[in-house]
Specification:
This protein has three domains: 3-103, 3-Layer(aba) Sandwich (Rossmann fold); 147-311, Rossmann fold (3-Layer(aba) Sandwich), CATH 3.40.50; 314-382, Helicase, Ruva Protein, domain 3 (Orthogonal Bundle). Helices cover 46% and strands 14% of the residues. It has helices at 11-23, 34-43, 60-69, 84-93, 106-133, 147-159, 176-185, 204-212, 229-232, 248-260, 286-291, 297-303, 320-335, 343-350, 357-371, 405-423, 428-435, 439-449, and strands spanning 3-7, 27-31, 48-52, 75-80, 98-101, 166-170, 194-198, 213-214, 226-227, 237-241, 262-263, 272-273, 277-282, 306-310, 340-341, 376-377. It is globular, with a radius of gyration of 27 Å. It contains 18 helices and 16 strands. With 452 residues, it is of the alpha/beta class. A five-stranded parallel β-sheet has the order 2-1-3-4-5, with helices on both faces.
Length: 452
């Protein structure tokens, strides 16, 4: 049973929350002021803390700051009838998981706690996976703050120990190979080879030999026996990247290998046993490829035992800041000079679309680092040309006569922000949700475009 500490100076609220959370299956402890709550929170093991902002002796933000500084690790949810958006931001800065504005509905409280529990469960699974990976070099994509990527890494942790075939899907640059390597390194096969092949990069005439090997004399130029990738990966893991590009003839042969764990080298009459754990990845919609007759249905069901979908970076902006800092720190080490990102640079990066996803973000940071001598990268370091205002500062409408694509894009972006703020009566948190960006990104763009 999860333990919850409720901290609020209103007796009625403490009592009602106690009854509500007890009915929901929690073990509830209540305190009326921050000082006593702090000592109790540090002296006992709590899973969650519900804390009011305005309290005697010690206010909620001071409680939260002290609790974190002294090593408290329970998830803290702050409650307040005052301050609104500013109070929420202040609480998040001090390490709160979430913010509940008073008055709140009973189901809203329980839902928030359930979400917090799920987040903590995923965090622990991801932490366990990272601990398994700690003995090797850091993977460039194993930085995840978003729910989608945390769930993907939690799946990695679950499937790693089994021999199951895994289908990893996602747009180009989302980190499919990184996830495949993470599965390998967290598996019992970690000490053996990880072998990867891009099925789209090898000519069809050579692909069968690459996968299954060949014997001497099998074709012109085959001067010696050669083991294929299935044999090279025996005991380890084989990644078949871009499996959607695999020619139809080879799809049938791959299906047989997956079913029988046997391969036949090109030109050979005998079969050979192989023991390679197979992971497959694709940027294509394999179900659509099956419907179009371009991918075998039986092979699709054979490789789609467990599916891990990696969302594009534009749908997980929470990951941009930690990824960007991770890449910057690696570059600083590689270049042997101090290198970091300003808050404005982070906000600028969070505001971009990144059609090339994590790979494009990494390349952009490296390019900026190479082309500047600055120790702290700013938005200007990422832009090949100066930003130009393409709108009237008092207008929310885009200027259709803007001269460049950048100017037209910025004009439309400004108009969208103005419209979202009007639709939410100036509530920036709600506007950020409507726009699909973080609150920090919205603040940056409001200041950049001079929106009042």
């Amino acid at each position: 049973m999860k333990r919850v500490l409720v901290v609020d100076d209103e007796p009625g609220l403490r009592q009602s929350l106690g009854l509500l959370l007890t009915d929901a299956g929690y073990a509830v402890t209540a305190e009326q002021d921050g000082k006593r709550a702090l000592e109790r929170a540090l002296g006992e093991a709590f899973d969650l803390v519900l804390c009011d902002v305005r309290m005697p002796q010690m206010d909620g933000l001071t409680f939260l700051r002290s609790y974190r500084q002294r090593g408290g690790n329970a998830l803290v949810i702050v409650m307040s009838a005052y301050g609104g958006e500013d109070a929420a931001i202040a609480a998040m800065k001090e390490g709160a998981y979430d913010y509940l504005p008073k008055p709140f509905r009973p189901d809203e409280v329980v839902l928030t706690l359930r979400k917090a529990e799920e987040r903590e469960r995923l965090r622990q699974e991801v932490a366990g996976l990272r601990a398994q990976l700690a003995s090797g070099p850091a993977e460039r994509g194993l930085v995840a703050a978003s729910a989608g990527m945390r769930q993907a890494l939690a799946l990695v942790a679950r499937v790693a120990e089994h021999n199951t075939t895994v289908l990893i899907t996602g747009e180009s640059g989302t980190g499919k190979e990184v996830i495949a390597r993470a599965i390998h390194r967290a598996s019992p096969r970690a000490s053996k080879a990880f072998v990867g092949i891009n099925c789209a990069a090898i000519p069809e005439s050579l692909l069968e030999s690459e996968l299954f090997g060949h014997v001497r004399g099998a074709f012109t130029g085959a001067t010696a026996d050669k083991a294929g990738l299935f044999e090279q990966a025996s005991g380890g893991t084989l990644l078949l990247d871009e499996i959607g590009e695999l020619p139809t003839g080879l799809q049938a042969k791959l299906l047989r290998v997956l079913q029988e764990s046997e391969i036949r080298r090109v030109g050979d009459q005998k079969t050979r046993r192989v023991d390679a754990r197979v992971l497959v990845a694709t940027a294509r919609d394999l179900e659509a490829e099956v419907r179009g007759g371009r991918f075998r249905e039986d092979l699709f069901y054979r490789v789609n035992v467990v599916a891990i979908e990696l969302p594009p970076l534009r749908e997980r902006t929470e990951d941009i800041a930690p990824l960007a800092r991770h890449f910057t720190a690696r570059l600083a080490q590689r270049f042997g000079r101090p290198l970091s990102l300003s808050d404005d640079a982070i906000a600028w990066l969070e505001g971009q679309e990144w059609p090339g996803n994590v790979r494009e973000l990494e390349n952009a940071i490296e390019r900026a680092a190479v082309l500047t001598n600055h120790e702290i990268l700013s938005p200007a370091d990422f832009q090949s040309e100066p930003l130009a205002a393409s709108h009237s500062p008092d207008s929310g409408e885009p200027d259709v006569g803007a001269g460049t694509l950048r100017e037209a894009t910025e004009s439309a972006e400004r108009a969208a922000i103005v419209q979202a703020l009007k639709a939410t009566d100036g509530n920036r948190r709600e506007a950020a949700k409507r726009l699909g960006v973080s609150l920090r990104t919205l603040f940056y763009k409001i200041e950049r475009y001079g929106i009042g």
